[in-house]
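ok so i was messing around last nite and threw this chain in just to see what happens. nothing serious, just curious
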Amino acid sequence: MRINADFTKRASVHAGAADWVQSPMPGVERRMLDRIGDEVARATSIVRYAPGTAFSPHTHSGGEEFYVLDGTFQDERGD
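result:
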């Protein structure tokens, strides 16, 4: 999968118009802003978690960016 993957070109994304895409984890959806690869990808996303959900530990060899618009991000190291 390649979304806005050519970093030599400017890209503009209206995130509100992007579809929410179900992730492999139940209750976790994302709006993909840029992506190079499938599930193990270099990715920038807006992610929405249903209350009480979590994403299992995983890696992104190319890096991962996401934006927290509401709530608190917490990983194995805490908040």
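not much to say yet. The chain has a mean pLDDT of 83.
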